[in-house]
Automatic annotation (TrEMBL):
Keywords: Membrane, Transmembrane, Transmembrane helix. This is Ferrous iron transporter B. Pfam families: FeoB_C, FeoB_N, Gate. The keyword Transmembrane helix applies. The chain crosses the membrane at residues 259-284, 304-333, 387-405, 411-436, 483-502, 522-540, 547-569, 589-611, 618-640. Residues 27-191 form the FeoB-type G domain. Gene3D superfamilies: P-loop containing nucleotide triphosphate hydrolases.
Length: 645
């Protein structure tokens, strides 16, 4: 959409009328506008703290973040608009941003710019001024500490005089310095100051009526705005020796992969104490269940509390522990400026799949934990590319899968045959990822969005641990609130299906259901025992061997195994492979291996996906796709291998 048409629809410019109730009751609505990595989210978290919520824009899959704070008796409602490079509506993020500004819902627009790269980051301001020339606003020059470290001197007073609106130097990661910004915000509310954009409009009118001509006019306006207001040392854009190695040498890809794997390992440091707390919650559930039984309460009550309520809290807490670790470590990477290098190094490779370079990180992390890989996708700016990355990442077998597959592969096919099974799994992984790209790629990522090259690398700077930790805690809290419902639903389903008053699996609903539908599950290559393990793995992948052990040796019910896995008190029989080899055929074992491997990862990964993509529709589509793929694979593998064994 051209600037003129956007301006015509902007209420501030005299276009379409704003909604009658566009102000919060007795308060002020502030929209945060800026390019990706300008510091909007940091400022949003610093202003609103825990008083925020995340959802979707109506009718869109783009993330919507809103929060509130008070200042001088005035309530402020803050809307963090999606990070975008302009208002041309070339992506869903830009479309949402443009439409929100055109609606007139914001009383004040706070434009964020990266002070270390003003020439580039002020392009959003130029786009905004051209689109909504009468919208009250102010400009925040973030990352002033980085600019100063580069030797730059910025005259904010001169820029403010030329613009006609407040201009505030800022370091968003230091909330103690927010006073000047909040004072400027209050002044903007009182004075309704707007940018003097006469020269910009004259330049656009005189430029050729093309995208290139309009862009040139905007950059010329920015150059005039900054003339004499910014002093910088010579050659500020020269790559350092380190950057030449990590972005342009033959070692760049191995170094990048190594840094991602290192981050994956470091994420366990803060995660382990939280995950241990989750295990303690499950153990507490067993204590509560025992106390209720001694008090004469019905056994079903204690079982429900331990198997559903406490287990759900346990799963959710353990999930949040790892999510916190991932967000903390890779938040530090991003705050330091390294995440852009990851995207740059692998951008060309990932673009072949309709993705960007940052997608590599979730893929590698999924080798350890799918939930971690899903959480790692948060660094991807485009929702469509993030969703496609998550869908592909689900195909990568996680560490829990590799704890099950080799045991069964060696037991049924020996040391010589097991590697062939592993090779087959990797081949199917690539096949499914390709299939996901072909089927869902065009629906999620338009042809014009299939590249995300980082054209200008941000400067390195010292990360702010406290600010990143606060952001990681907020993200983890939001995910826990959403995810607990998904986890509880899965936990309740398994508990209801496997609960028996006697402790014997033969008395469970799952046993009756499994034996009744065994003719159907046999078509997919699984008997009722292996199908039960496949079903329980929907909650927790690592429970599969324990469930198989309980079913084939009569040691415990599936629900008891799930509880035991979380508390560390359950383990598979040491000879489970040999026991199964005597009870089921090699084709059934092979069918189970492939169906188990490519089933949806686990309940925690489903909830993590829901929390990251904010789309129930696409989370369900992804889960159903992998459930169907796993059953289809089991069917094909079983019937083909039956011809060979």
């Amino acid at each position: 959409m051209s600037c003129e048409r956007c301006a015509a629809s902007c209420p501030a410019a005299g276009g379409a009328k704003a909604p009658a109730a566009r102000k919060a009751a007795g308060g002020v609505t502030v929209a945060l506008l800026g390019q990706p990595n300008s510091g909007k989210s940091t400022l949003f978290n610093g202003l609103t703290g825990a008083r925020q919520h995340v959802g979707n824009w109506p009718g869109k899959t783009v993330e919507r973040k809103e929060g509130t704070f008070e200042r001088g008796g005035t309530a402020f409602r803050v809307v963090d608009l999606p990070g975008s490079y302009g208002l041309a509506a070339n992506s869903p993020e830009e479309e949402v941003t443009r439409d929100y500004l055109a609606s007139g819902a914001a009383d004040i627009v706070l434009v964020m710019a990266d002070a270390s790269q003003l020439e580039r980051s002020l392009y959003m301001l130029a786009d905004f001024v051209a689109a909504c020339p009468e919208q009250p606003c102010l400009l925040a020059l973030n990352l002033m500490d980085v600019a100063e470290n580069q030797g730059k001197r910025i005259d904010a007073v001169l820029i403010a005089r030329r613009l006609g609106v407040p201009v505030v130097p800022l370091v968003a990661s230091r909330p103690e310095g927010y006073g000047a910004l909040l004072d400027a915000l209050a002044r903007t509310v009182r004075e309704r100051s707007v940018v003097d954009g006469a020269r910009l409009r004259e330049g656009i009118a005189a430029a050729p009526d093309t995208i290139q001509g309009t862009a040139a006019a905007k950059f010329a306006w920015i150059e005039g705005l900054l003339d004499g207001a910014v002093e910088a040392p010579a050659c500020p854009h020269a790559l350092s020796r380190f950057d030449r190695v990590v972005t342009g040498s033959r070692w760049s890809k191995p170094i990048t992969i190594g840094m991602i794997l290192l981050g994956f390992i470091l994420a366990f440091v803060p995660a382990i104490p939280i995950m241990m707390l989750g295990g303690a919650i499950s153990s507490l559930g067993q204590v509560v269940a025992g106390a209720l039984a001694q008090a004469g309460a019905p056994d079903v009550l204690g079982s429900f509390l331990a198997g559903v309520v406490f287990n759900s809290l346990c799963f959710g807490t353990m999930m949040v522990g790892y999510v916190f670790g991932i967000n903390l470590v890779f938040g530090l990477y991003e705050d330091a400026g390294y995440m852009a290098r990851i995207s740059y190094v692998f951008d060309h490779t990932m673009a072949r799949f309709g993705l960007q370079g940052k997608s590599l990180m979730p893929f590698l992390m999924c080798l350890g934990c799918t939930m971690g890989g899903v959480s790692g996708s948060r660094v991807i700016d485009s929702w469509g590319q993030r969703m496609l990355t998550v869908m592909m990442a689900w195909a990568i077998p996680c560490g829990s899968t590799w704890g099950v597959v080799p045991v069964l592969a060696v037991a049924f096919f020996g040391v010589a045959g097991a590697p062939l099974v592993i090779v087959g799994i990797f081949a199917v992984t690539i096949l499914i990822m390709w299939l996901v790209g072909r089927v869902f790629g065009p629906r999620l990522v338009a042809e014009g969005e299939r590249a995300g090259m980082v054209m200008e690398l941000p400067p390195y700077h010292r990360p702010h641990l406290g600010n990143v930790a606060r952001g990681a805690l907020l993200k983890s809290r939001q995910m826990f609130v959403r995810a607990i419902r998904v986890v509880a639903l899965f936990a309740f389903a398994i508990w209801a299906l496997t609960y028996t008053a006697t402790g014997s699996v033969e008395g469970s609903v799952l046993y009756a259901l499994g034996t009744a539908i065994e003719p159907v599950t046999r078509f997919f290559g699984m008997g009722w025992q292996t199908f039960t393990a496949w079903l329980c793995a929907l909650v927790l992948k690592e429970s599969a061997l324990g469930v198989l052990s309980g079913l084939f040796t009569g040691a415990a019910t599936p629900n008891a195994v799930l509880v035991g896995v979380m508390t560390g008190g359950a383990a598979a029989a040491s000879n489970i492979g040999e026991v199964m080899a005597q009870a089921i055929s090699a084709p059934e074992a092979l069918a189970f291996i492939f169906a188990f491997t490519f089933n949806m990862p686990c309940a925690a990964s489903v909830s993590a996906t829901w929390g990251e993509v904010h789309s129930t529709k696409w989370t369900v589509i992804t889960a159903l796709f992998y459930i169907c793929c796993s059953l289809l694979l089991g069917c094909v593998v079983y019937h083909v291998s039956s011809l060979c064994f």
